[in-house]
Amino acid sequence: MNSIDIFPWDENFNTGLPLVDEQHRRLVDLLNQLASHVAFRTDAFRLETIFDELADYARYHFQTEEAIWQDRLGGEAAEVAHRGAHADFVKEIGRLRRFQVDGQGTSAAEETLGFLARWLASHILESDRYLAYAAQAVTEGLSRTAALERAKERMGGATRALIDIILSIYSTLSTNTLRLMRELAEHKEADQARRRSEERLKIAMGTARQAWFEANVQTGELELDPRYEDLLGYEVGELIESLSNWLGNIHPEDQAAVTANFEALLRDGGPISIEYRRRCKNGDWLWFRSTGIVTERDGEGRPSRISGIHMDVSDRKRADLEAAKTHALLAEAVASVAIGFTIYDDQDRL
Description:
The chain is an alpha+beta fold. The protein is about 65% helix and about 10% strand. The relative contact order is 0.09.
């Protein structure tokens, strides 16, 4: 069966507890299996198996997590709420499983896919990470009250901003990717170009080419993830970037839209996303999707720092272009056949 990672695992999802992280990755793997089933329409028996594996593994994972939280934070409001969230998750999966048994397999799978993507991203990044920070602090000797306060502090600031950015990206990832996966699957045999586009898209989504950045709005200075330099063809430390330099290397056709979105970000705080072309070292252009959010303000409430993520979406842009070309060729062929039938019919009447 064809497969794709609709939920690419990123190190940002690690909580710092190896056993918990390993089990989270297994849950994400089951989500990716479900996405592949929905997109490529495998047999109903496989869907039932995924549902059963998901329910069983979720219960097993929750028992593992709850034992850790109970040992170090048992009875605390956050620990009790966490158990409640687990119970609600199992109940929801059971509801969706019943839909599947009642003959609503595809509908249940689609609903489950959206539910899982949203739930896993938010639960892992927020609730699990918060309790993991607190549990680690208790292990280090802090009281529960102090440990929970430290976890709250660690979840604020830049960490909170990064979480918001990632959730913003993953909230639309499952829907958009599933749509593209289906389109690719349905047109897989149309022509070789379409098959090449599918492969590029699978690779691009699987690797999730991302890089973080932080910008000082008042000085224009930028702090960049080294991966961003690599994406643009620079050696580490070679790219001297600033806000003005970044804006100056955006494709002329995209500068107005980027400037307008940047101003909206400063005005509203974000998160705001924009897609545009960025010049590489060799003069080529890469398409990026950049998502930013204001993370700091000065004493007068003016934005002073922005944090965000650059994502290389060039492969998807090329795939969309080739798909448009393919559809145009098919439309032209259909039109030609229709004209031919019309001429033949006219001659037959004569």
